[in-house]
Write a structure and sequence with these properties.
The chain is an alpha+beta fold. It has helices at about 5-25, 30-35, 40-45, 65-80, 80-100, 105-115, 230-265, 280-310, 315-340, 350-360, 365-380, and strands at about 120-125, 140-145, 145-160, 165-170, 180-185, 195-200, 210-220, 270, 275. The longest helix is centred in the middle third of the chain and has 37 residues, at about 230-265. The structure holds acetoacetyl-coenzyme A. Belongs to the acyl-CoA dehydrogenase family.
Length: about 375
């Protein structure tokens, strides 16, 4: 067993680390405070290839493996989880879904722009009454011959306003239940498609999360992804990979908070010495580091499974379940190590603590991950 990263992996990790420190750290507090979308930063991430890392160079992507992707996700998330969710949705849900299941015309028309960051994508599955229970789609797509008519509402959509292309899951034939669900590429500007209100969020406040409304939107048949009825499997398959990205995001939030707590404990003095010299603090650091290392092994294993062509439904769910818990626990402890300073914005850990929570909710709550894991264990 070889735990060593390749030279290329190390280069990608270092490039992401430098980018995050130099380009994302300045202004991260203000963007969080104002709920400001990181337009300039996203443009730079596109130019540097972070938005289509795993897409084949044929379609303008970086042709990298999933291990490279999670290394970059961890580094970006250490500094700015609002930016990393944009990276994650564009790479794992939108680009991967299109490259794996789209046809050649769809890839040429849409993927080439999404992979370079010229355009941004969104993934639209959740609805007011279908979050975890994803088969209960209320959005309808009625087959009209050469097009579909789309009606309904999607909720909590990451990149909701900033996206150019939206992968929308909708029910075509209710009687067929999940086998009557389809996935469509919807373009911003299509008549009847309207971006609704922006959510006021606890964390990842730089990313824009919106409700979307579809009122008699005419979607050409060539914008359906895959065969008729493939939409639910498309969503499930895509989310399985997406969970590896969010697991890496959680890992990054945890390691970012740990590093801040470690560094702070070496300079802050109390009772005549740096606080890291008190076991109360040193033991916290030991726990954090151990849990983060365990989470990193799970994240890497899931990424490796995907790269090897192994099934990664379970390993991705395990990585997300565990890493998101570690993100929550570590950020709370990092605030504690900082004492009163941890509760104010300039020390960053309060933001990381708020950002951590979403990793236990989106792309399937922790309870959903347990469903996926237990079903995987008990099948056969
Ligand atoms: N790969 C392929 N097929 C899959 C699959 C997978 N990973 N998971 C399920 N399926 C298939 C099943 O095989 C089954 O097909 P057949 O009938 O042909 O056998 C079909 O899908 C239905 O499966 P289930 O009976 O298991 O469906 P279920 O209703 O019990 O739900 C679930 C399963 C795992 C709970 C699923 O509903 C789920 O993952 N829910 C959570 C949805 C979610 O993650 N939402 C997040 C929104 S996206 C987001 O957050 C993005 C963002 O902006 C950041």
């Amino acid at each position: 067993m070889d735990f060593k990263l390749t030279e290329e992996h190390l280069m990608i990790r270092d490039a992401a680390r430098d980018f995050a420190k130099n380009e994302l750290l300045p202004g991260v507090i203000e963007r969080d405070e104002k709920q400001e979308f990181p337009t300039e930063q996203v443009k730079k991430m596109g130019e540097l290839g972070f938005l289509g890392m795993m897409v084949s160079p044929e379609y303008g992507g970086g042709g990298m493996d999933t291990v490279s992707y999670v290394l970059a996700m961890e580094e970006i998330s250490k500094i700015d989880a609002s930016c990393s969710v944009i990276v994650s949705v564009n790479n794992s849900l939108v680009c991967w879904g299109l490259e794996t299941y789209g046809n050649e015309e769809q890839k040429k028309k849409y993927l080439t722009k999404l992979a370079t960051g010229e355009s941004i994508g969104a993934f639209c599955l959740s609805e007011p009454e279908a979050g975890s229970d994803a088969t209960s789609q209320r959005t309808t797509a009625i087959d009209k011959g050469d097009h579909y008519i789309l009606n309904g509402t999607k909720n909590w959509i990451t990149n909701g306003n900033s996206a150019d292309y939206y992968l929308v899951i909708a029910q075509t034939d209710r009687e067929k239940k999940h086998k009557g669900i389809n996935a469509f590429i919807v373009e911003k500007g299509m008549e009847g498609f309207e971006v609704g209100p922006k959510e006021q969020k606890l964390g990842i406040r730089g990313s824009d999360t919106h409700t979307l409304n579809f009122n008699d939107v005419k979607v050409p048949k060539e914008n359906r992804i895959g065969e008729d009825g493939f939409g639910f499997k498309f969503a499930m398959k895509t989310l399985s990979g997406g969970r590896i990205g969010i697991a890496a995001q959680a890992l990054g939030i945890a390691s970012g908070a740990y590093e801040l707590a470690r560094d702070y404990s070496k300079i802050r003095k109390a009772f005549g010495t740096e606080i890291c010299n008190h076991q109360a603090i040193a033991f916290k650091l030991a726990d954090m580091h151990t849990q983060i290392s365990a989470a990193r092994h799970l994240v890497m294993k899931a990424a490796w499974d995907k790269d090897q062509g192994n099934n990664y439904d379970m390993s991705g769910a395990m990585a997300k379940l565990y890493a998101s818990q570690v993100a929550m626990d570590t950020t709370v402890e990092a605030v504690q190590v900082h004492g009163g300073n941890g509760y104010v914005k300039e020390y960053h850990v309060e933001r990381l603590m708020r950002d951590a929570k979403i990793t236990q909710i989106y792309e399937g709550t922790s309870e959903i991950q347990k469903i996926v894991i237990s079903r995987g264990l008990l099948k056969d």
